[in-house]
Amino acid sequence: MSARRAVATGAAVLGLVAAGVTGGWLLHSPDERIAVTVPPTVVTADVRSATLTTRYDGDGTFSAGGVLAVHVAPPSGMTAVVTASPRSAGDVAEWCSPVVEVSGRPVLVLHGEIPLHRDLTVGDEGADVRRLQSALRDCGKRVAVDGVFGQATAAALTQVYRRAGYAPVTAASSALQPTDATAAEPTAPDAGGAVSTVDHVVRASAETDPDGTDAAEPDAVDDREQPLTPPAPAAGPAPAPSPSPSPAPTVVAPRGELLFVPSAPRVGSVAAPGLPPADAPVATLTLAGDRFRFVLSAAQRAAVSEGTPVVVSRDGWSETTTLPSLPDLPTVDDTGVPTYPVELVLTTEVPSASYGQAGRFDITVGSPDPYELVVPVSAVYDTPDGTVVLRASDAEGGTPPPPEKVTVRVVASAEGHVALEVVAGSLRAGDQVVVGER
User: Fold this and answer.
1) Each residue of 62-111: pLDDT tens digit?
2) C-beta of residue 167 within 8 angstroms of C-beta of residue 161
3) If residue 197 lies in a helix (H) or strand (E), which one and from where to where?
């Protein structure tokens, strides 16, 4: 056969083959053509029982709950002189006890959320009287918390003063005077915390008396005046009138000497006896409620939520607490990185040497107990019908059947894996789920 004839014959054969292939292609639907030309090859992973935990840790800073700076003016006509320091720096200021003595008069610490906004005396009524009575009960005095300053309240206040070693106040001018400088102040951001007492002071200006009165203990003394029944006239001549007794001195609760704080504080500093420096506080109190501040990265914020346990530690001291409500929007730091600031209020007293120092936080997300159904996160798909995984069907030879759609709920996630609960369908440990295609 000549070369020309061989080429012609070969071309004819190739033409027939091409025609046959084209004809076969046109006999299939588009989906069938895809199935024939691009057979799917899926990648699967095991469904297994496993624990899911992720640990996040980092540095933070300790700070005090706040510092209450005590400023008082001397009684009328006297010079402000620190005459005694009953407490030393680091001592716990006990309820109803003095923390400093100025010009012979004490500053007593009482338990209360809101400071007095006026001097109180017999006959006064209101929510501030009720707070005073509640504080006196915390001092161990049996008095009704009824909002009425009567003789029983005066007697209880007198006992508190005498137990502390001082005479009660009978005239406001003879007591220490409050100054506007006495206030709870937040410490510096790197060495202290926000002070809750500031909020208490603000609320005091808008407070109204609550409905009703607090129930008194059965043995509490009722302060209200009782009606008097005149005695029956006696027979015989009337006795000679006796001289009228001198009226009892009026007891005053002076706001310059009664320092209300929400929790038992620790003495931060006390001025030495003598003339205090100008504008300096005569004492400072460290309020309870120490803080620990740190920031979460965007990835950490996505993995935790309010109530997630967190361990704070430093030099052998530690406390386990939970995360508070977390910000939804980040704060961008100086480098442009978004972070989420967190402030923990600690219930365990932090060593005072830790204030302003670095500590560690440790958050473990997940459960130490194994979950029954754990798959790679790439196996989970969000669809209009819900969250699903595709369970690969068993097949022995031939074309495998399509995967089965199983509706699930994600109950935990960590380290690129998720734990599932089945909502609809069937899934168990040992099955294979689709995680991608080759």
Assistant:
1) 987 778 899 999 999 999 999 999 999 888 899 999 999 999 999 999 99
2) yes
3) helix 196-204
